[in-house]
Amino acid sequence: MNPFENLRIWQKAHSLMAEIFEIVKKLPVEERYRIKDQIERSSSSVGANIAEGYTSYYFQDKIKCLYVARKEAGETQNHLRVLETRKYLNPKNSNRLVNEYQGLIKGINAFINYIRDKQKAEKQKP
């Protein structure tokens, strides 16, 4: 197992991505290059950017990747609302998934703060 796979935020992002991929399998063919492609890319980008940030050497690179992961999670929340509006996803599932992504965003924020604290501690070393 890669070390980033031990991160709860990566595990959550990966789990949500898998759930999104199952949901969009049921979309009509005409949505393949519209919302389906967009939500698949944004949901998979969350975990990819967490992994990239984790494996980056420099603190600022780590934080930058986590910012991107956070933005992609927000984009995925928007795509979920679009699926709901277009009646491809019921409001209960849409709300649940949007809330799951909101929890993930909070986790990403906590990890950013952890990295910043490590960065400050590193700067204070004699």
Q: How would you describe the overall organization of this protein?
A:
By secondary structure, the protein is an all-alpha fold. It has 4 helices and no strands. The protein has helices spanning 8-24, 32-55, 59-85, 91-124. Helix 1 (8-24) packs antiparallel against helix 2 (32-55), helix 2 (32-55) runs antiparallel to helix 3 (59-85) and helix 3 packs antiparallel against helix 4 (91-124).
| Outline type | elongated
Q: Show unreliable segments.
A: none
User: Roughly how many Å apart are the termini?
Assistant: 35 Å
Name the beta content range. Answer: under 5%
What portion of residues is helical?
A: over 70%
Biggest sheet record? none
According to CATH, what is the topology? de novo design (two linked rop proteins)
Mean pLDDT: 96
What name goes with the CATH superfamily? 23S rRNA-intervening sequence
The CATH class is identified as Mainly Alpha
User: What CATH architecture would you give?
Assistant: Up-down Bundle
Q: Main traits of this protein?
A:
single chain; 126 residues; mainly alpha; de novo design (two linked rop proteins); 4 helices; 81% helix; elongated
Give the SSE map.
Elements: H1 8-24, H2 32-55, H3 59-85, H4 91-124
Helix pairs in contact: 1-2, 1-4, 2-3, 3-4
How do you describe this structure in short?
With 126 residues, this protein is an all-alpha fold.
